[in-house]
Amino acid sequence: MEERSGSVLSKLPYTNRGVIRQEELSALIDWCQITVKDISLEEVIERVLRIPSELMEVTEYQKGIAGHELVAVFDNIKVLKPTGKAQYNGFQILMSGSGCRNYENFLQLNGETWFDFLRRVNRYHVNFPRLDLAIDDRKPYLSIPELIQRTKEGLLSSKMREVDFHDSGEVKEEVYQSKGGSLYIGSSASNLRIVFYEKGYEQNRKYGTELDENWNRYELRFRQETAVKAVEELIRCEDVARLAMEVLNSKVRFLEQPKDNKNLRKRLYPTYEAWAELMKEIGKVRLTIEPQKKNLQRVWDWLERSVAPSLKLFAELGKIEKKDYIGDLIENGEMNATQRKLYDDYIKARCFDERGREHRKGVAESERSKRVSRSWRN
C-alpha cells in the first residue's frame, strides 16, 4: 500500500493539527466565565473582548446555558444574555478550554496577554462565576494511579473534605491496564476544586489521537468569590506560579507512611517525595498561550478512516459505468447545522486572518516610518 505523505487538510489555512509544548510544566487559562453588567452587547464584543463584531454574529438558534440565551459566538467564544429567572442588565462571556485557546488568537492580534485582558475586564461591573487554571505536566512528576492509591490508604492531607476518584481500564491477558485515572479534591459545587487527571488518555478517548502516556493535567477550578480573588491576584502579581503554589500548598499534601508507626498525627507525616519535587518545580511555571483555530481535523480524520474507502470503490465503479457517483453524492448532499457552522466559521476565520495580516503590516510600516524619522532628525 502506498504510504500517505500527510493530510491534505493541513494545507488549509484555518485548521490546527495541535501544538506540542516542550516545557515539562506549563500553565494555561482553561475556563473563563465572566458576568458583565450595565453595558451593551456591542461594547462587550468590541471593547471588552476586542473582537470585530461581524465575526460574532449568531445566524441560527444555538443552545446556551441554564437561564441564558446565546446572542453572539465565534468558535467556542460565547456571549449570552439572561432569560427567565436569571434576569439582570448585562451579559455573560463564556470561554471553555477550547474557547480560551480560540481567544488567544485575538490576544496575539491585539498584542495582549491574559493579564492585560483580565485587567481591562476588571474596569467594568463584573463578576467571575468560574476561572480554571490548568497546569500541564509532561514529565510527568506524578502518577495519577499512585495518587489515587495513596488517597485510598489515607495518605492525603487536605482541608477540603470531599474526595472522589475514577480509574477506568481493561484486563488484557489477565493483567489490568489503566485507561486513565482522575482524582477530584473538593466538591463540584464548592468554590475551589482541584482535579488531577491523565490528559493524554482523555484526549485519546475523546478524539482518537495518539496516546500520550506522559501527559498529566492538574486543574485549579475557582468559582464565585474564590474566582474573583484569583483574578485579583493574577492582575496584581502577574505570576501564575505564585497563585498555584499558594493554593496547592495550603490545600493539599500527599504523604509517605512514616517508618515510626507510633506517629498517628498526619501533620507530622513526611511529604510524598514526588509531590515535594513537583511543588519545588511548580514555582518556575509560567502562563503560556496556545492559540488554536477552528478544528476541522476530526471531520477529515473520520472521512479518511471511514468514508474514503467507500468513495474509492464507487469512483472505480464510476469509471466502468461511465457515471460520476461521487459528484452526484455531493450535488445532492445537504450540510447539517453543525457542518454549516464549521463552514461559516471557516469563512469568518479567513476574514480574521486577512485582518490580522493587514494589522501586522500596518504596525511594521509605522515602526519603519518612526525609524526613518529618527534617523532624519539625527
UniProtKB/TrEMBL annotation:
Residues 358-370 have a biased composition (Basic and acidic residues). InterPro entries: REP-like_C, Rol_Rep_N. Residues 358-378 are annotated as: Disordered. Residues 126-330 form the Replication initiation protein-like C-terminal domain. Residues 27-119 form the Rolling Circle replication initiation protein N-terminal domain. This is Uncharacterized protein.
